[in-house]
Write a structure and sequence with these properties.
mainly alpha; Helix Hairpins; elongated; 70 residues
């Protein structure tokens, strides 16, 4: 997932995507522990996607606060 695509999401879509991606990461962790996960690089990729999503959420929070002060 690229950051440009993430920034195009609305706030509601972004929150939903964060929730879904965290759920996916949890499922991948369970698969890894039980030995069912063949491609462990998905763990790293999903973790980075979560970080990108949360970064955009935080950017929007900061922007809303700074615009409110003006």
């Amino acid at each position: 997932m690229k950051i440009e695509g993430i920034r195009k999401f609305s706030d509601d879509e972004l929150k939903t995507k964060v929730f879904d991606t965290k759920k996916e990461y949890m499922e991948l962790r369970f698969q890894h522990v039980s030995g069912q996960l063949n491609d462990t690089s998905k763990l790293k990729q999903t973790r980075r996607d979560i970080a990108r999503l949360e970064t955009v959420v935080r950017e929007r929070e900061i922007k809303a606060v700074t615009e409110g002060e003006k």
